[in-house]
Amino acid sequence: MINFPKKQQIIKDTKKLNFEFYLGSPYYLMIFVLVIIPIVLMLLYAFTTDASSLVSIRFTIDNFIEFFVQPTFISSMLESVYLSFVSAVICLFICYPVAFILSRRKLITQKILVALITSNMFINSLLLAYAVRSIFEMIGSAFFDQSRYLLGTDLAIIAGMVYLYLPFMLLPIYTHMAKLDKNLFESAEDLGANKLQTIVRVVIPMSLSSVLTGFMMVFLPASTTLVITRYLGDGQRKMIGDLIDLAFKSGKFGYGAAIALVLAVILLFFVFLIKKVDKYEGVLANEE
Amino acid sequence: MKSKSKLFADVYIFLVLLFVLVPLISMIIFSFNQSNSLIVFTGFTFNWYVDLFTSRSLREPILNTLLVAGISTFAAVILGTLGAMALAKQNRIFRELALSANNIPILSPDILTAVAFFVFLLAFSIERGLATMILAHISFSTPYALLAIYPKVRGLDPNLIDAAYDLGATPGKALWKVILPQLRGSIVAGAAIAFTMSFDDYIISKFASGELVNNISTYMYSQSHGIRPNINALSTIIIFIIGIKVILDYVNLRNKKQEEE
Is A5 left (phi over 0), alpha (psi -120 to 50) or beta? Predict the structure, then answer.
């Protein structure tokens, strides 16, 4: 015999379900209006001529053509990619060993050191960039008799980027590394792998997705920064962020939106790559 | 051999710490500098701290920053908590979709969010000002709050909520008396992240606020002669507060560990 739920039960369940839906509706509304709609509008603007209202729009790809034919734009695009790529690689080389070392220390030491190394995350990025700038000015006036000697060089910009975005590389790698099952290392050793082999064959493949996440978290904000080009580039180096800023300042909204869209495509590529590489999820220990 | 590699590791960690801390320390030192310079130390003074609280040009940006960060954190926590509770009960497809949408502002670079929001204001010809700055901050800090709260909501014991209903609690009462108290820790964490994000942001504030309204970031950026030491004084205070928080966490953690032993 089939047990039908009592009528009262059904009413109670639907009431609960409705309640939870209403509960979430302000959040859904916020995401839809303030996140989804702006992105759709940005797409629309990128493919249309600059019109003041939504009624008089015309579709075009001129915005993208303008972007790709001007040599200055291509050069600052390449410059942003080059500087932020190098910075992300340096961040990775600094953070990977740190995460590995920390994940094998006592829990309390881990917490304290991670808090200290990522402490600059809580401070305004303009202040951080300016603090790094004053260090470079000190070095400049001490060794080159001119305080602004080093500003605008690759060294200053990359140092600034590494400094500002180091926590964003460390945190994903460290969190992932701390979750790795320590038994796996032991079994690798039991099966005859030496330390280096354990790292190369076990640790690195399993932490690859967090490395990509960290790489994206450094590369994307670094390549689109306005703050670092102003303070550490001393205004001499123009990067993508400055281009977008300039486009909007001079009222070329569609063009600015087009550049932003190119960025969004790069972002999607990263997300796709991470999803593709992340195949070791099942072996993580202590997963909540 | 083993201690040698441990020594090497210690030195390495120390060097990284040095790299992170040296600019912060220089920032603190120069907040006590007598002259305007951030390069040459001429003498000790507290003048910049006095200046921070009395200067007229700084008052408005500081108040705006606190206002924007305060309101947007409050809104982000409420929206994030409600959203997390609703999402935990939705079916899988809808949930994955909503979480992907939630990740957009977190993953995309600030300038992308800023441009999208700017175009949004433009399309509906909304005038930019403090209100739009607050809206923009809500839109990018809510996803962080949700991500902090959501895992905890999923881990809630459904039996407790059912028990509350069986004992005659209305949904509102169950929420207030049973669910929220269990979420307190993660809500505080979400609030901390949302506040930091709001306080940290420059690009989105700039695009969302127009020329007339400034928070600290846009104010600093607009100073063409660079940053004056009174801003250093401000960040020293912030570093101090965060330092206290880290020490408190450390003490808590140690006490907990001793209890366990």
Answer: beta
| CB hemisphere CA count around A287 (13 angstroms) | 8
Write the ipTM: 0.83
Task: Please answer whether residues A21 and A233 qualify as being in contact, where contact means their C-beta atoms are separated by less than 8 angstroms.
Answer: no
Q: Which residues of A touch B109 (CB under 8 A)?
A: 220-221, 223-224, 263, 267
Q: What is the interface size between A and B, counted as CB pairs within 8 Å?
A: 227
Query: Which residues fall within 8 angstroms of residue A109, CB to CB, at 6 or more apart?
Result: A102
Interface list for A 7-46 with B (CB within 8 A): 12, 15-17, 19-21, 23-28, 30-31, 34-39, 41-42, 45
Six-digit token pair at B230?
């009174």
Round to whole Å and give the CA distance between A23 and B84.
9
CA distance A257 to A262: 9
Look at A227 and B200 and tell me if their CB atoms are within 8 Å: no
Amino acid type, A58: R
Q: SS3 for A55?
A: helix
What pTM value is reported for the model?
0.83
3-state secondary structure of B55: coil
Spell out the residues 6+ positions from residue B101 whose beta carbon is closer than 8 angstroms to its own: A31, A35, A36
Token pair of B63 as six digits: 């108040």
pLDDT tens string A130-188: 889 888 888 888 787 777 777 878 889 999 999 999 999 999 899 888 887 777 777 88
